[in-house]
Specification:
22% strand; OB fold (Dihydrolipoamide Acetyltransferase, E2P); binds FE3-S4 cluster; binds S-adenosyl-L-homocysteine; binds iron/sulfur cluster; 13 helices; alpha/beta; single chain; 5-stranded mixed barrel
Length: 449
């Protein structure tokens, strides 16, 4: 392929890591057609907006980007050149028809289960408009090419997609479709290919990653044991887990497998049993606490992060306080928290007892203050410790690299560029609520650790 006929592909990604993964796969599947990724929509031959529908204003954000892209498309058209504009992801899935109607300059609208069909859709879109929001059960992953080029030291691997849980607030079961687990052999193959291409740290992804199951009843724990044996893979992570899908083998994996990082993202959403019930989470606060205790027994140095929703319909002050109590009881290393946002088509959207915006804001502020104190405290306990850090990129200034700790903390370290891509022992020297700094450990600090 010569530079002259390379086409510029700009993909903008919102939302979860599954979307990040999908964007990379879209770039891979378009590469044989001559598309190469660029980091701006200016002058691009094709623009894909890979969107997220999880909270409100999602569609507005897409339209505001589309407005700018329409202008860029028009400028290109004035020069006699074409720009293909595509909207993908969960907003496309949920609002495909609406986008197509309101934005006539959009050439393609397609949902998350159709990415393996991109080459044919692109060819078709040069002549007519393409809209594809089918939620086909056919496995897109096994029809996508494997990761091309150098994958870098930290790689994502989607093992599961979709969701059958139907939490009453959530759009995912509608935008991603039914729960689907990739076959075990396909996952192991992809992990081996990633390791061959230089990946040392693999994060397994899924909307409900621990709902993953193999065709012979294997669970996520079994998969971790298998991946643990792949030469070259030094660290294993996974997200996002659901408290309903905790299997014995996953606890065993945390107990037995040193490459499984001592960290778990386990969203609880609320600490009130009544609210958990109304959310259709199908577990109680006490059951969540039991999981935490059991994981700590399996792996005493484990730390947790979670997602929280405040102001779910009907949430009383007392019920909100139960969430605060649960947070105090667990002590989180990191977290994401949101005001409840009504999503059209979900059962909660028609529930009584909407909480006023000011109350939601007050609750969120209090919750985030408490969590921030906990994050700062957790990060503080890391100071003085030596831990393996995977250097994944250059830091903010020359002579600095940034990386991830086993607890997923961002860390900056003065280090030579040759260490990029390596996992190196680092002594943590400083901590804030959101990040750490450290220095390359000496032989003495490593031995003392
Ligand atoms: N599968 C994961 C979460 C997927 S969505 C789980 O079951 O926990 C990521 C997070 O977005 C959720 O954990 C929830 O905290 C938040 N979220 C989802 N829908 C929301 C809504 N309608 N309003 C506010 N936050 C929401
Ligand atoms: Fe959404 Fe619930 Fe499924 Fe998570 S488990 S993706 S919150 S429906
Ligand atoms: Fe958003 Fe879809 Fe992920 S709604 S969070 S991009 S599954």
């Amino acid at each position: 392929m010569t530079a002259a006929n390379t086409k510029k592909l700009y993909i903008k990604t919102w939302g979860c890591q599954m979307n990040e993964y999908d964007s990379r796969r879209m770039a891979d599947v378009l590469a044989p057609l001559g598309y190469a990724a660029v980091d701006s929509a200016d002058d691009a031959d094709m623009v894909i907006l890979n969107t997220c529908h999880i909270r409100e204003k999602a569609t507005e954000k897409v339209f505001s980007d589309l407005g700018r892209i329409r202008d860029q498309k028009n400028e290109k058209a004035a020069r006699g050149e074409k720009m293909l504009v595509a909207v993908a992801g969960c907003v496309a899935q949920a609002e495909g028809e609406f986008i197509a109607k309101r934005a006539p300059y959009v050439d393609m609208v397609f949902g998350p289960q159709t990415y393996h069909l991109l080459p044919e859709m692109v060819v078709k879109a040069t002549g007519e408009r393409v809209i594809n929001t089918s939620l086909s059960a056919e496995n897109k992953f096994d029809n996508l090419p494997s990761e091309s080029g150098d994958v870098g030291p930290a790689a994502f691997l989607s093992i599961q997609e979709g969701c059958d849980k139907f939490c009453t607030f959530c759009v995912v079961p509608y935008t991603r479709g039914a729960e689907f687990s990739r076959p075990l052999a396909a996952i192991v193959d992809e992990a081996k290919r990633l390791a061959d291409r230089g990946a040392k740290d693999i994060t397994l992804l899924g909307q409900n990653v621990n709902a993953w199951h193999g065709q012979n009843g294997e669970t996520l724990g079994d998969l971790l044991y298998l991946l643990h044996d792949i030469p070259g893979i030094e660290q294993l992570r996974y997200m996002t887990s659901h408290p309903r899908d905790m299997h014995d083998r996953l606890y065993d994996a945390h107990r037995d497998l040193p490459k499984v990082m001592p960290f778990m993202h386990l969203p609880v959403q609320s600490g009130s049993d009544a609210i958990l019930k109304a959310m259709n989470r199908k577990h109680t606060a006490a059951e969540y606490m039991d999981i935490i205790e059991r994981l700590k027994k399996a792996r005493p140095d484990i730390a947790f992060s979670s997602d929280f929703i405040v102001g779910f319909p009907g949430e009383s002050d007392a019920q909100f306080e139960e969430t605060m109590d649960l947070i105090r009881a667990v002590g989180f290393a990191a977290s994401y928290s949101f005001k409840y946002s009504s999503r059209p088509g979900t059962p909660a959207a028609t529930m009584q007892g909407l909480i006023r915006e000011e109350i939601k804001s007050e609750r969120l502020t209090r919750l985030q203050e408490l969590l921030r104190t906990q994050h700062t405290a957790f990060n503080g306990t890391c100071v003085g410790k030596t831990m393996p850090v995977m250097f994944s990129g250059k830091g903010n200034r020359d002579g600095q690299l940034h990386g991830r700790t086993p607890y997923n903390q961002a860390i900056h370290v003065d280090a030579q560029a040759r260490l990029l891509g390596e996992i190196v022992p680092v002594e943590v020297t400083k901590a804030t609520a959101t990040a750490l700094s450290g220095r390359i450990a000496t032989r003495e600090t490593v031995l003392a650790a």
